[in-house]
Amino acid sequence: MPRHPIFLDLRDQPVVVIGGGEVAARKIEALLEAGARVTVVSPNTVGRIRDWVDAGRVHLVQRRYGAGDLRGAKLAYAATGDADANKAVREEADREEVWLNVADEPILCDFFAPAVVRRGRLTVAISTDGTSPALAARLREKLEQDLGPEYADVLDRLAEMRARCREQGRPLSEARDQIERLIDRVLPPKCG
After folding, report:
1. Are 89 and 18 in contact (CB under 8 A)?
2. 1-113 to CATH, choices 3.40.50.720, 3.40.50.2300, 3.60.20.10, 3.65.10.10
């Protein structure tokens, strides 16, 4: 069954990451970009995680995962490489009603972290339902080449136009031609 794609506002929301390796670091980087309050539980961490801890951007609990570590979290990630630890985290996530992503174990996941391309406020997310992160990464690379910075500029102008219409009490349909011309600057109209 296909997953339902959503974008979450994680600003100042508590998120727990179990694990301190490179996979965990990639998850943490995306969470920090989203403004989440990240707690890492791991006896060891890679340099990037240690840098975030030293800068006060991440809270570190320097030990192995233990029951209760997910309490109060909105989301959690397990990136331990240890099947038994991942299963224990999965069980706690169920008890605590915390949405969980377990790296490289799709069957244990409530959600998948997509490959992402950002151009300003434009976000394109790519998911393979956890079956092939390599394909998702390759598609992300292609889209990064195809979607230049002009997309961010056009989106900013479209947002301004929409806000002006609202302020003036005008329906967006009145600005439809102008909206279409702006979009045509980055996406040529379809033929036929």
Report:
1. yes
2. 3.40.50.720
Domain boundaries, the chain: 1-113, 150-184
Contacts of 178 (CB under 8 A, 6+ apart): 161
- The two three-digit tokens of residue 136, written as one number: 């998702």
Distance, in Å, from the CA atom of 125 to the CA atom of 69, rounded to the nearest integer, reads 29
Strands 37-41 and 58-61: parallel
Q: Which two tokens stand for residue 165?
A: 């219409």
Helix axes 22-33, 47-54, angle to 10 degrees: 40
- Report the amino acid identity of residue 14: P
Which residues of the chain have a pLDDT value below 50?
none
pLDDT tens-digit readout, 142-157:
999 999 999 999 899 8
110 φ/ψ angles, rounded to the nearest 5 degrees:
-85, -25
List, for residues 61-86, the tens digit of each pLDDT value.
999 999 999 999 999 999 999 999 99
66 backbone dihedrals φ, ψ, rounded to 5°: -140, 150
Give the Cα separation of 26 and 23 in Å (integer). 5
Distance, in Å, from the CA atom of 105 to the CA atom of 97, rounded to the nearest integer, reads 19
